[in-house]
Write a structure and sequence with these properties.
3 domains, Rossmann fold, photosynthesis, single chain, 4-stranded parallel β-sheet, alpha/beta
């Protein structure tokens, strides 16, 4: 398969990483439930935690008030935390009532909102016990969404990693695509892979538990989200092989991601060009139009979602922006290395966060656009800096060719808004 990328003379893969371990400004991993409960249509997420966690989910998921949710909170009272109640018996009763009321549930995730030593409850043991009680109709798994142990997107990683050990074994040579995508984007991806003659394609997470997703020594997997380090490790332990590639953001990233799969499965150059030529052309045209506002501007990434490195590559190479600093909660070479190879040298690459120090660097640099969390956006806007909420880049369809123009438009919008406001003064 022909290489479709022209790497920069010097990329960032060997750039020394500024490692920071201080105060962080990030959401906790419970927020992943907000998109996962829509993706897995026969799953339910039962958060075992405090009223604070219940209020977080209620507030964060308020936009879905008109749809029946597939998540809830089992609230721990003071007597539970004090050990005065049998928390396991209480949890068993809650689960039994839930499954009786919602017979459509096939997968039940027990999600810890705090470490087990805080909530005084071993959810791993509880999941095993409840699986024995309710199998084969319901599979019960557990993972931690604790803000102490996980950052924003790590909730999805922990959830998918909990599923890998119970996937059936297969010896078939199959492609497994890993990471939750909106259904419309997933359908576009599957159509491209089908056009290349690659199939069957398995998905993790699948929309239904009965979907034939399995893993084994002949499984080849490709990630569509750059925050799945634990899931990557769990699949490798099951014998699967990772296809390292840039992530499918923009024309270049999508083409490189598809090309890595095409090479692995022996797709000819002619077939690859025939399938990708038209959507690539549409993507380039959409990016060019949306990025007129971005060309020549500088951008600064605070660590939030682990999407920062592939997005910086997209903005630098396809939108003409200059990254000043690219911060990410974690940097995993097996996942982020291909995008770092393509990111032109120059920006500071930072891992972790010491928020006060990073704010000082951002203020000194005065970037044209700052990508950050909700808690930092308003203060920086008040100081005259244009910002984009990092969380929007997770909730908005941004992968693959047909969303490439929308992705560029998300970054252009704050700059256009500031230009309009300044012109009105």
């Amino acid at each position: 398969m022909t290489q479709h990328l022209s790497p920069p003379a010097t990329g960032c893969r060997s750039t020394p990483i500024l490692k920071e371990r201080g105060q962080r400004e990030v959401f906790c991993g419970l927020t992943g439930i907000i998109w996962l409960h829509r993706k897995m249509q026969d799953a339910f997420f039962l958060v075992v935690g405090s009223r604070t966690c219940a209020h977080l989910l209620q507030s964060a998921a308020g936009v879905m008030i008109f749809a029946e949710p597939r998540f809830a909170t089992a609230i721990l009272e003071e007597s539970d935390l004090a050990g005065l109640n049998d928390a396991h018996a209480e949890l068993d009763r809650t689960v039994t009532e839930l499954l009786a009321r919602r017979p459509d549930i096939r997968q039940l995730f027990l999600v810890g909102s705090c470490p087990s030593e805080v909530i005084k409850l071993d959810l791993g043991r509880a999941a095993e016990r409840l699986t024995m009680q309710h199998a084969p109709k319901v599979r019960v798994l557990n993972y931690s969404g604790s803000g102490i142990e996980t950052t924003f997107t790590e909730g999805e990683d922990a959830c998918l990693a909990s599923m890998v050990p119970v996937l059936p074994k297969t010896d078939a040579r199959e492609l497994l695509v890993v990471g939750a995508l909106p259904d419309v984007v997933e359908d576009q991806m599957l159509a491209l892979l089908d056009g290349l003659g690659i199939g069957p394609v398995r998905l993790l997470p699948a929309r239904h538990i009965d979907t034939e997703t399995a893993v084994g020594p002949n499984t080849v997997f490709a990630l569509v989200q750059p925050f799945l380090g634990e899931t990557h490790a769990a699949l490798v332990r099951r014998g699967a092989t990772h296809l390292a590639a840039p992530f499918p953001f923009g024309d270049e990233g999508t083409t490189a991601w598809l090309a890595a799969i095409a090479r692995e499965f022996g797709v000819s150059d002619e077939t690859f060009r025939a399938v990708t030529e038209a959507p690539r052309r549409r993507a380039r045209q959409a990016i060019a139009q949306a990025s007129e506002t971005l060309n020549g501007k500088s951008v600064f990434f605070f660590p939030d979602s682990q999407l920062e490195i592939p997005l910086a590559r997209f903005l630098a190479r396809e939108c003409g922006m200059t990254p000043i600093e690219v911060g990410s909660p974690y940097i995993h070479d097996a996942l982020h290395g291909p995008d770092l190879d393509l990111l032109p040298s120059g920006p500071t690459i930072s891992e972790g966060q010491d928020v006060d120090k990073q704010l000082d660097r951002c203020r000194a640099a005065r970037p044209d656009l700052t990508i950050c969390g909700l808690g930092l956006a308003n203060p920086l806007e008040a100081e005259g800096l244009s910002t984009k909420w990092a969380i929007e880049l997770v909730f908005t369809p941004v992968h693959f060719y047909e969303q490439a123009g929308d992705l560029a438009g998300l970054f252009a919008r704050p700059l256009k808004r500031r230009a309009v406001l300044e012109a009105a003064v």
